[in-house]
Amino acid sequence: MSKPLELVAIPAPPSEFRVRRDARFAAPGEKRTRYHLPESLESSSPVGYRTRVSLSREEAGILLSLLSLPRPSRFVPGPALTERELFEECSLGVLSARQSTNFRGQREVLLGPKDSEQAAALLRRMGRKEAPVLEGAACTHVVLARPYRTPFTFLLTFVGHKPLASLITVPMRAWAKRFRHADDIPTIGYLKELHLGVLADAMERATVVASAGTRRAQVFLEPFEQPADTTALRELEALVGLTPAERAAGWRISLVAQVGHVPEEERIPMERSTARRLGAALLALRSERIQPGVNAEPAAPPAYQTRQPMDVPEELTVQAGRAAYNAFARFTGVSRERAKELVLLERIDVLTPHGKERLRSVREELEQVTDKLIARLPLWADLALGRALSRNSARGRKAFALAGQRIYVGGLSRREVEQSGLSFAHAVRAFGAAAARGALVAEVAGTTEIPEGCDLSGGVCLMAGPVNQNDIGKQFFGGKDLLERAFAGREPTSLLVWTFKAKTVADPIGNEQQLLDAARKGALVDLRPGPHEVVAVRQGTTLGPMRQSGGRVNAERAFGDVGNFVSDPAGKEIPGNRGTVWPSDQANAPLWPGGTQ
What predicted TM-score, i.e. pTM, was given to this entire model? Predict the structure, then answer.
């Protein structure tokens, strides 16, 4: 069903156009900016400030091979999993899977072999159509998710009301959001599903990389809302400790991944040293928004101000599309050919015929939506909040800056999805997996044999901002979907935008600092979590947070032995960035002694 992928290199620019971030610490008395290195890091996140790992072609080939694997056919007996193995597996999954808005809307419970037997029986009773439920899992990840809510969704509470009626309709909508988990616009509801798809795709790779190819994951992504046996779902909720209060807050079991040892013929051949480098490489990836010389702010250092003579090869986008179709087919069970029909993609960059005009048109439409949004905000609410609503609306314009050599809008048609026998929520999740997998192809190309003196040779930004803004226009101001012109008559729903960028300088250190430093985080992001905050481990009949012992919590950086930590040009590192290793007597101990029989 899946097609193998080929590595397509991004040609490096001439040496005089090669630049890097070259971040430095602020000098005494100098005002710090988002381009300076932070003075220190104290974080429980396994990520930290990392530099891209320059992969060899062989390493890149192994990583790309993980994007077209079949599902595991069976699990076999194997040794007990150590605490560190599972910490690293979670680090590549739920602790870092979302590279865009890092909303803490996901957490998970880890079940050992005995509890995994019970979970497998419950999954069979619920009925899982997308893949067989396997026996002999070494562990099971049960992921819970809740509706997407951020300061942006708070702002949306006040959008689209009539002037006088808003005194009544705003409180009514706020009540519906609080108690019925209603969404202001459909695409906000889809963000939860998209993030689950991104996580599902990451979890498959995480299992392989954390085990150096000896374990695989069987991921069940189809929504659990309408099981064949509702009692079985309630029993699984009880097994993972989901409380009535958490259900009332919107938390639901949303994804389950069985993990187990696989027979020799299904293992992925790789050296342990290669797996370590791949793990560190995956943790170092970041969403890249800036295109040098195109959308850098005036205050940015010179490295960001000059256009580079680089391009994303057409062949690379072909491979990215192939990976996306692989993922969509994998997580829905439809054929690859049907996946190619269902996944709607429109390219709108300046390298296509009439692309410049189309790109300008999209930008103008989004600007017009923002202007209307601000003009029609309830004045009583905006004044009461010190004009915060209108200020934040205007500030949000940068969230849909479309800059890159290859720009694609992607989405689905609900009608066509349901005609294929899929629920729309399931298809949106699979689309999230497809988007993440397609983006990773370009990121691998952009970190293979990085030229000397460069941060990377290409990156990707996955954005929901433009389609959310377009959705506001559709819902409240009579606009049309971004994909309507390209797919007229098919009732498209746009979901995400990819911007592929060939460049050698990474985005400002401040983008990462928003995720790691509570004092400097952005308005629309949340901090990268530590394992104790979102991962619980079931041992016996009790649930306990991962890596919290007494008053101590994690400060280890996963795959830190690779050493890809940010430093200034003189080699001075950010104090605390390397973290501290978790005590070996705990990290090397099996979480569930005995293994699988």
Answer: 0.95
Tell me which of 143-157, 235-249, 258-272, 279-293 is least confident: 143-157
Reading the block at residue 506, the tokens are: 């990474």
E runs forming strands in 262-402: 344-347
For residue 572, give both structure tokens.
């001075």
| pLDDT for position 145 | 95
Element (H, E) at 460: strand 459-463
Concatenating the DSSP letter of every residue in 417-441 gives HHHTT--HHHHHHHHHHHHHHHHHH
SS3 label, residue 107: strand
Alpha carbons 52 and 454: distance in angstroms, whole number: 10
**Which residue(s) pair with 346 in the sheet?**
409
* Residues 461, 286: Cα–Cα separation, whole Å: 8
The pLDDT tens digits for 126-153 are 998 889 999 999 999 999 999 998 888 8
d(CA 435, CA 333): 17
Q: Which of 437, 202, 198, 439 is nearest to 312 (CA)?
A: 439
Mean pLDDT value across residues 104-117: 95
Q: Which two tokens stand for residue 293?
A: 């010389």
* Dihedral over Cα of 285, 205, 207, 528: its sign: positive
How many Å apart are CA 100 and CA 286, to the nearest integer?
8
Q: What is the pLDDT of residues 436-467, one digit of tens each?
A: 999 999 999 999 999 999 999 999 999 888 99
| Residues contacting 353, CB < 8 A, separation 6+ | none
Q: Are 455 and 493 in contact (CB under 8 A)?
A: no
Q: Which residues contact 550 (CB under 8 A, 6 or more apart)?
A: none
Is pLDDT of 162 > 60?
A: yes
Classify the phi-psi angles of 579: left when phi > 0, otherwise alpha if psi is within -120 to 50, otherwise beta: left
122 neighbors 236 (Cβ within 8 angstroms): yes
Burial grade of 111 (CB within 10 A; 0-12, 13-18, 19 or more)? buried
Q: Looking at this protein, which amino acid is placed at residue 522?
A: G
Confidence (pLDDT) at 522: 56
553: left (phi over 0), alpha (psi -120 to 50) or beta: beta
CB distance 235 to 211 below 8 Å: no
Hey, is 492 helix, strand or coil?
strand
Phi, psi of 482 (to 5 degrees): -55, -30
Asked whether the beta carbons of 466 and 366 are under 8 A apart, the reply is yes
